[in-house]
Design goal:
Layout: E1 15-19, H1 25-37, E2 53-57, H2 68-71, E3 73-77, E4 84-88, H3 89-95, H4 98-106, H5 113-119, E5 122-124, E6 138-140
Parallel strand pairs: 1-2, 1-6, 2-5
Antiparallel strand pairs: 3-4
Amino acid sequence: MKTYLPKVNLNDRKWHVVDADGAVLGRLAAQVADILRGKNKTVFTPHLDAGDFVVVINAEKVILTGKKETDKLFMSYSGWKGGERYRSVAQVRARHPERLILHAVKGMIPKNRLGDRLLTKLKVYKGSHHPHAAQKPEPLKAAA
């Protein structure tokens, strides 16, 4: 008996729009990561890109539970000595609120070339407007 390997049709991908207003960051990121990988489809295969495109709007209105809003720090390193830089969630939210969602979703997808390809299908925007209306994205309810 041979193993069934599904054919991934690139024209069969859907677009989903998720409103992050009032959504908890971790739950939203887990839901988005599943759609990007294609885990919600019957043809899911771990090593194939069978997922859909996801547009997240209102990224600045996402909620973090507990004391993460004040205690969580994001670290970046320039490569130079003493080049570590720490930013709080409030600082990241003020300058680039999209990065909160991007960072959370990136941690939930594979750390390889497939994961890099999956992340290009995620579009995150600060306000409620996005330039992907021509793709006719279907509204998707954020996980509560």
